[in-house]
Design a protein that fits this description.
heterotrimer; A alpha/beta (421); B alpha+beta (484); C alpha+beta (114); A: alpha/beta; FAD/NAD(P)-binding domain; Immunoglobulin-like; 5-stranded parallel sheet; 36% strand; B: 484 residues; alpha+beta; Arc Repressor Mutant, subunit A; 12 helices
């Protein structure tokens, strides 16, 4: 049984894990990256489409290219030890406060890592048919969009011949195009909301380009097929959100792809006692991106589901610098609460500090052009920002410079509220 | 196929057929177990709730209650021999009104008459002490500590493995379509043209027992499918109870239960609905609402948010309220084991004994084998071990260090073992190892398992199925011929 | 028309007169270029995967270096699914040079060793 002592353990070798590890290692600390696959890169490796890196590299790259850049940096950095085909099994704490990460490794057996800090960067999982309980049978041919993407882009398998996609999020839209480009017929995309979840550019280049119908305000109400999918029943939703069974119609198909949401992968965290935020399904974190468990940090999709990988990198890099401060002995300064106000689904982190700039990320609940973002501290208005276009599937980043807090009394309890109208 | 004649052919590899085959493997007999699906336990037994009943639900002097009590008592021995997960968590029946308490008293009386050990009537306080998560509106109830839970398919796999270890020949993908009788031998033919001969036949055909009976020109009866939908909730659910919680039964149904499974997840259901189609296993949105509202009435902290998946199974109901286990009066050397609804799983060890006795009565000579080995080696799993134990296991076989299913912590070695034992469908591997049963429902492990089946069993990935037949997982490999 | 050059997705109004094309509604130069091109000769960046020779179930991602005229997309895909590539490969190498005389190269977008 191997025991390894490092300064920080990063669980997950995708975009978040690599950026966090680099950030910690650049400051001179020993980092171990634990990755269960046999390569670094994470989900980016199967995202062969472009649209990544506009902010980070001022170029439009494909997912694998974005990952490659970071992989090259990570491999060059001597302070980063990479453990592939290694799975973290649990996180515990020693009597002296050190964190111990228990891992199973194909090559080494059990490796127990002890570190001052642990970074959760294991990404998210997909919501699936079972979770949302779509009625009907359980034939073969039902995939989450991510699984279908993996099977297609990494292993070269076409999931089916005639596909119906549930959910108009970006993953579903990208797969609509991808499947069309491998010769599969995409018969339609079914979306429960009155507007599409994904980026408009994707509606154009993934659906409109191929005349794939988009059924807004519809649900798949039943799946048919004994051995393999044979058809789906699609039903419209009325204005008051009720199923209008009489107006149902059926589409014959042999495959269903579900793009119905992503959820941060929190099983390891939950078992370690990390408190979960039900608005994000990820952990509660303070202004240093530290969870409710001392020394356990989170960033990337494991913290909250991102739509732009450049933001993941930014967040992970910043998380790495907080980890560095923590290892040095820095402890949490007085932090105010951050709460979501009008039309905000969630905002992160859950706390802010006044001695440095704060980067906040939030998601709106409405679609609007020329919206306004308001920030209040203890109900007093401190900042306003104009936003050209907002929609729930696009995360908003807010930079709060520290002079915003100039006139706030330092010793009081403060609540910062973000609203959008 | 060799034209050797088997002494006994058991048709149907569900809990009944598998238990009978294993029992018969104790004797110097040539036994075959025939299953129409791609793998064992893929019929009625797949969707079983996994409850080992205590024995107070059925009237005394029925075959059901007699075999249920006998069977219940045999599970410790079976577990020791076969190494499947089994826990005697106890059963609670919760009553919410004066009328319901009257029914509880009747159940208690029935339990006493059936000799159910340690059964007690509880007042509200006692019930809440036993099960704090119960709705505090409960009036009182029944406690039967001998009730338990198992994983039904793990149990069937173990029975079949043990039977095969002791010489039973298993044929899967063998759907019986024709049977002839001549010279004291049955010739049994499958849909794919295979055939075998046997002197005695046990009809444990589950949903299709009536059709099998017809083919063999035995008694005419009808099996009516009764559908039950169940919902699986995640581990560490807020409503996870200490015992199996039953409502007070109504009419023919034991009701919607809250079941703490032996692996730590939670199940609620089943419903009970008469249907016509023996292949209709669809779930419905109406039943989702019904099941959850019934379950939440008993345990208010249950939440729909924790659903992992749902499924439905079919019970093989027939006329009359009892098991139909008897020597056929119309066909020679043909034993009927039909209408095995609840408490079939609980009764299965006793059903096997009973059928063995029927065979003896019908003239079959039973001589015990000297080299019969009732024991199976327990499945080696890496989850739940201390770091030292896990390390030893991984050093022995590095495949234990490769976690394939992250949700259930199933390693490559365990999946390989399942494949090497002949489970080469995705469902077969899922039921054998639990890979794919967790929260992500195969989102992460599917591609890994496909590759393992390909590497270890040599099956090309295009041909791998979910559960046999035409349930292939992928359509084709990338090719320019798909671009028109 | 909606511009797809970047995630903002400006709504463009593209008008064509006899001698030129005007684009309105764009917030950057790329939008103007996109509007004109989409009107005259729509192009798309194409991404796909290509088989690695001698390795079962192993593929490498590729992309067109610049947007390709729509009418060439299917022929390119057909060609890509016919090809096989040997390991090792380096991210950025040209797989197909000047496809069908369009001036567009197809690049490999991931490095892979043996």
């Amino acid at each position: 049984m191997l025991e390894k002592k490092v300064n920080a353990v990063v669980i997950g070798g995708g975009s978040a894990g690599m950026a966090a590890a680099l950030s910690i290692a650049e400051k001179g600390y020993q980092v171990a990256i634990i990755e269960r696959e046999d390569t670094l890169g994470g989900i980016l490796l199967q995202c062969i489409h472009n649209g990544f890196g506009l902010q980070e590299f001022k170029q439009e790259l494909t997912g694998p290219e974005y990952a490659q850049r970071f992989e090259d940096f990570v491999h060059k950095n001597r302070k980063i030890n990479i453990f592939l085909e290694t799975t973290a099994v649990d996180i515990t704490q020693n009597d002296n406060g050190t964190r111990v990460v228990n891992t199973y490794s194909k090559k080494h057996g059990v490796i127990l890592f002890s570190a001052d800090a642990v970074v959760l960067a294991m990404g998210c999982r997909e919501r699936n048919r079972g979770n949302i309980a779509i009625a009907g049978t359980r034939p073969a041919g039902i995939f989450t969009a991510g699984l279908a993407q993996r099977l297609l882009n990494i292993d070269g398998f076409i999931p089916g011949k005639k596909v119906v996609i549930i959910g108009s999020g970006d993953i579903g839209l990208i797969m609509a195009r991808r499947l069309t480009w491998v010769g599969t017929e995409v018969l339609g995309v079914v979306e429960i909301q009155p507007f599409p979840s994904g980026l408009t550019r994707n509606i154009v280049q993934c659906l409109n380009d191929f005349s794939i119908p988009l059924y807004l305000n519809h649900v798949v109400s039943r799946i048919y097929g004994k051995e393999r999918v044979t058809k789906v029943r699609i039903t419209p939703i009325t204005q008051d959100g009720k199923i209008d069974e009489k107006k149902s119609f059926q589409i014959a198909c042999d495959t269903i792809l579900l793009s119905v949401g992503l959820i941060p992968d929190m099983e390891l965290a939950k078992n370690a006692g990390v408190r979960i935020n039900h608005d994000t399904n990820g952990p509660y974190v303070n202004a240093d991106l530290m969870t409710s468990q001392e020394g356990i940090f989170a960033c990337g999709n494991a913290l909250h589901v991102h739509d732009i990988v450049d933001y993941v990198t930014e967040e992970a890099r910043r998380c790495g610098s907080y980890v560095h401060d923590y290892i040095q002995g820095g402890r949490v300064k007085k932090q105010g609460n951050v709460i979501p106000g009008a039309n905000i689904k969630y905002i992160l982190p859950n706390h802010y500090v006044t001695h440095r700039n704060n980067r906040l990320y939030c998601r709106p609940m409405i679609v609007k052009n020329n919206a306004e973002l308001f920030i209040k501290i203890n109900k007093k208005f401190v900042l306003q920002k104009k936003l050209r276009h907002i929609q729930p599937s696009e995360m908003i980043s807010i930079d709060l410079e520290k002079d915003v807090f100039k006139n706030i009394q330092k010793d009081q309890n403060h609540t910062l509220e973000v609203s959008i109208r | 196929m060799k034209e050797d004649c088997f002494d006994v052919a058991v048709i149907g590899a569900g809990v009944s057929g598998a238990a009978i085959a294993r029992k018969l493997s104790l004797y110097r007999l040539k036994v075959t177990l025939i299953e129409k699906c791609e793998d064992v336990s893929f019929g009625v037994s797949k969707a079983n709730s996994g409850i080992i009943h205590a024995g107070f639900h059925h009237k005394p002097a029925t075959l059901k209650s007699r075999l249920e009590i006998e069977g219940n008592l045999m599970f410790e021995k079976f577990q020791q021999e076969l190494q499947f997960p089994f826990k005697r968590v106890g059963i609670l029946v919760a009553a919410f009104s004066y009328e319901e308490m009257k029914t509880v008293e009747k159940l208690y009386q029935q339990g006493i008459e059936n000799n159910v050990p340690l059964i007690e009537i509880c007042n509200r306080e006692r019930l809440l002490e036993l099960e704090p998560k119960l709705n505090s509106d409960v009036s009182g109830g029944l406690y039967a500590p001998t009730g338990g839970i198992i994983e039904p398919y793990r149990y069937v796999f173990a029975l079949v493995e043990s039977a095969m270890k002791n010489g039973v020949k298993l044929f899967t993908d063998f759907k019986v379509i024709r049977a002839g009788y001549s010279g004291g031998q049955y010739t049994i033919t499958s849909a794919k043209g295979r055939s075998l001969k046997a002197k005695y036949v046990i009809n444990a055909g589950g949903l299709y027992a009536d059709e099998i009976s017809s083919l063999f020109k035995a008694e005419k009866y009808k099996i009516f499918p009764r559908k039950g939908e169940e919902y699986l909730l995640e581990r560490n659910s807020s409503g996870f109870p200490n015992h199996v919680i039953f409502p007070v039964p109504i009419k023919n149904s034991k009701g919607t239960l809250v079941i703490p499974t032996v692996e730590g997840t939670m199940m609620i259901g089943p419903t009970a609905e008469e249907i016509k189609d023996k292949e209709d296993v669809a779930t419905t949105p109406e039943n989702l609402e019904k099941v959850f509202s019934l379950a939440m009435k008993m345990i208010p902290s249950i939440s729909k948010r924790e659903i992992i998946t749902s499924f439905a199974g079919l019970r093989p109901a027939m006329e009359g309220n009892d098991f139909y286990i008897d020597i056929s009066k119309k066909a020679s050397h043909f034993i009927q084991v039909a209408g095995i609804q609840s408490p079939g799983l609980t009764a299965s060890p006793a059903i096997a004994e009973y059928v063995k006795d029927l065979l003896k009565k019908d003239g079959l000579k039973l001589v015990e084998k000297r080299d019969y080995d009732p024991f199976l080696k327990g499945a080696m799993v890496v989850r739940g071990r201390t770091p030292e134990e896990a390390d030893k296991l991984i050093k022995k076989d590095s495949a234990y260090g490769n976690i394939v299913c992250r949700c259930e912590n199933v390693s490559e070695a365990e999946v390989t073992e399942a494949i090497e034992k002949g489970h080469t469908t995705m469902d077969g591997i899922k039921f054998y190892t639990r890979a794919g049963m967790g929260k992500c429902q195969g989102g992460f492990c599917t591609y890994k398992i496909l590759h393992l089946i390909n590497q270890k069993a040599g099956i090309s990935i295009n041909k791998i199925t979910k559960r046999g037949g035409r349930s292939t997982i992928v359509y084709d490999t990338l090719s320019d011929k798909n671009i028109k | 028309m909606i511009c797809i050059s970047c995630p903002v997705g400006c709504h463009l109004i593209v008008a064509s007169t006899r001698d030129r094309i005007t684009v309105k509604g764009n917030q950057c130069k790329r939008g103007e270029i996109y509007g004109k091109e989409e009107m005259l000769s729509p192009k798309r960046i194409v991404t796909a995967v290509v088989k690695i020779r001698k390795k079962e179930y192993c593929y490498i991602p590729v992309k067109t270096e610049k947007p390709l005229l729509k009418k060439y997309i299917k022929p390119l895909l057909k060609e890509l699914y016919r090809l096989e590539v040997d390991l090792p490969v380096k991210c950025g190498t040209v797989l197909i040079k000047n496809f069908e005389n369009t001036g567009i190269n197809v690049l490999i977008t991931r490095s892979m060793k043996n």
